[in-house]
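Running this now, will post back.
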Amino acid sequence: MNHDTDVRHVIAGHLEPQPQFRAIDDRKHILAEGDGGTLRNRIDDPIDGTAGLLLEVVFWHMRGYGAACIITIVMRVLTQRVTRASVQIDHRVVGRIERGLVLFVGFTHSDSDERLIWMADKVLGLRIFSDADGKMNESVLDVGGGLLVVSQFTLYGDAVKGRRPSFVDAARPEQAAPLYERFLTMLRDRCVAVESGEFGACMAVELVNEGPVTIWLER
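Update: finished.
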């Protein structure tokens, strides 16, 4: 199922046009409700004034079919296995690794420390490096590799409608920046060699993808 708040994704494959919906935050407050056509515009304008984070959106038919669908926006990490990688800001190298993983990390409105912990453990435990027999059987920790972590809100780009992607599902900078720093801290607590870009900066990333191996992670 497409993890997205855009009702159009769900209608196309699962539901009748204009299903009813209710959006619920992490404190079980109702953020918005009505017909599917209003969700995209209402999700950042809670009807009861709460400031809770979006947890789920529940859709159901008005024709008695009993169909339901829960959609949760998720944290996203695009992981690439590399032989070397670096990131520059204004032609100055701010992060560099040799063999290891490059992580392009995106955060959404509902992300929490629980998701960060899960993602940090998942990244470091991924067995995507070759062992002595040439099989993918070792993690970045097993091979003594490094991590290069780059924030990238464009992982939430939605280009279903029109030609200019929408990024409304990406967390705002004031929320995403602390999440990014906490994620880096969690990785550094588990892995010594962690380099990073700079949140919000215009960066130039160079990498050599080994394989190529690219893994899309969501939580």
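The chain has two domains: 7-71, 76-218. More later if anyone needs it.
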